[in-house]
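--- STAGE predict ---
source: upstream dedup step, 1 unique chain passed
mode: sequence only
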Amino acid sequence: MLSSTYEDATRRQQLKEMKEDLSKLSMVNEFAQYARLERRMNALTEDIKAECMFCTQHMSVYLYRVRTRQLHFVTAVDDNAL
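--- STAGE serialize ---
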């Protein structure tokens, strides 16, 4: 997980740097370079979104499993108390 967090931070930093570079370019005068950089930014953004969705789905599954186990545990304790 640590490497994933580090990679995520690195990607976000790259995206920030790309945005700064893009803001320095003139879309009209340097269209080809602007378009290439914009495509790279879009691809990186999609990668970040996909990774976030992947992590969110796994966290949701984990939380569901934890909650259902706690529910079963509470139910078992309540049954034994009677």
